[in-house]
Amino acid sequence: MTEHATTEHASHGYITDKDKYLNRLRRIEGQARGIHKMVAEEKYCIDILTQISALKSALDAVAVGLLDDHLTHCVVDAARAGGAEADVKIKEATDAIARLVR
Amino acid sequence: MTEHATTEHASHGYITDKDKYLNRLRRIEGQARGIHKMVAEEKYCIDILTQISALKSALDAVAVGLLDDHLTHCVVDAARAGGAEADVKIKEATDAIARLVR
Amino acid sequence: MTEHATTEHASHGYITDKDKYLNRLRRIEGQARGIHKMVAEEKYCIDILTQISALKSALDAVAVGLLDDHLTHCVVDAARAGGAEADVKIKEATDAIARLVR
Amino acid sequence: MTEHATTEHASHGYITDKDKYLNRLRRIEGQARGIHKMVAEEKYCIDILTQISALKSALDAVAVGLLDDHLTHCVVDAARAGGAEADVKIKEATDAIARLVR
Fold first, then answer.
1. H-type helices in chain C, by residue range?
2. CB < 8 Å to C29, chain B
3. Interface pTM, i.e. ipTM
4. Which position among A36, A54, B6, D100 has the lowest Cβ density within 10 Å, counted as fewest Cβ atoms?
5. Left if phi > 0, otherwise alpha if psi is -120 to 50, otherwise beta: which for C13?
6. pTM (2 decimals)?
């Protein structure tokens, strides 16, 4: 049942402004490629670390955005539908937050 | 109006198992005091850093727990009540998550 | 031998401007106490999370400062003394950094 | 002079086991591409967040490894050479650590 709800959401476009995410993620791919190139060319270590920090920040921004969308759509919908589904969704979300925060 | 809702929740015990948090936070205070003592006694730097990491983890665990309670109570209640309140609550929560994740 | 070096440093005041750290750590203890009080008084969850983030930042600043002192004193001294001691110190330091970064 | 030292290191292969890093970074690029694909296909939000956390961990591991190499080579070399160079290198390194830890 949770599984079903999951699949349903997966195909129902919970992501607000998907193109914004796709653009950001393309940029993130480019950043990852750039870091690979910096190591290949043995750029100065500190400069590589700076790029790694920037990439992590970009990932955090995507993660927080997706989480916002998830809470706004999946969790609110589940809360409105009633039943235990909202609790399941929130547990999933806080587990994901715990992994991000670490 | 949001302000009102806030105050209301603040006094309505949204925290599940408050004693658990109070115990953990007392332990966190003790950890902070212990780190102060380690610096005062000039303990080995690396050992102090280990205690700082442990304290940060303890704080993250409290933060994620509080966030879970907040989503389960405030956000779900707001979602059920309908209107824009749920969006406001979610925006607040994701801003708080962004600060935790950084 | 490493153990010995450790003990030696522990009593040799590797910390530059110890009072600065003690003051910061006293403030950190106060912040921890404040968060305990906020939970006891059931303050608004989001406000508590904000204080937890601030406390984590304060801890990070102390950790980075101590690490700087450690590298400047212990690691540089070990490097100058020659031998494998510097590698041991650096391994310790990077392990500590890994725990902080997580 | 610092600039010179920097450039020198940049071309002198301070990175121990460069291939290991290049392989890891290629995998990281693949992870970034995978996350892009997950968003494009609107996979379940929580699963995307899990992959983002995994990617961040992989980046942290690379960063800590590079930092270890940097301390082992550049900082130790500078310490042995004497003069203020070691302090400059350590300041750079702790600034980089501060950005990683945030």
1. 2-10, 18-40, 45-70, 76-81, 85-101
2. 29, 32-33, 36
3. 0.86
4. A54
5. left
6. 0.87
pLDDT digits (tens, 9 = 90+) for A19-75: 999 999 999 999 999 999 999 999 999 999 999 999 999 999 999 999 999 999 889
Q: Does B39 touch chain A (CB under 8 A)?
A: no
- In 3D space, the residue among B15, B67, B47, D97 whose CA is nearest the CA of residue C53 turns out to be B67
Tokens of D86: 């070691």
**Please, is A51 exposed, middle or buried when counting C-beta atoms within 10 Å of its C-beta (0-12, 13-18, 19+)?**
middle
Residue C50: both structure tokens together: 């904000």
Q: How far apart are the first and last CA of chain A?
A: 29
Tokens of C69: 């002192």
**Token pair 């997580």 is at which residue?**
C102
**Cα-to-chain-centroid distance, residue B14:** 13
- Give D-chain residues touching C60 at CB under 8 angstroms: 98, 101-102
Q: Report d(CA B94, CA B92) in Å as an integer.
A: 6
Cα-Cα-Cα-Cα torsion B17, C39, B3, B78, nearest 10 degrees, comes to -20
Question: Given a contact as 3+ CB pairs under 8 Å, which chains touch D?
Answer: A, C
For residue B95, give both structure tokens.
């801003």
Distance CA D5, CA D89 (A): 10
Closest by Cα among D52, D53, D54, D58 to D25: D58
Nearest C-alpha in A relative to D15 = A42
Strands (DSSP E) contained in A4-87 are none
Contacts of residues C16-23 at CB distance under 8 Å and 24 or more positions apart, as own/partner, are C16/C69, C16/C72, C16/C73, C18/B39, C18/B40, C18/B42, C20/C65, C21/B39, C21/C62, C21/C65, C21/C66, C22/B36, C22/B39, C22/B40
Residue showing tokens 């750039």: A34
Which of C15, B55, D52, D4 is closest to A57 using CA atoms? D52
pLDDT (tens digit per residue) in C13-72: 667 789 999 999 999 999 999 999 999 999 999 999 999 999 999 999 999 999 999 999
Chain A nearest C-alpha distance from B11 (Å): 22
Give C 57-76 residues with CB within 8 A of chain B. Answer: 59-60, 62-63, 66-67, 69-70, 74
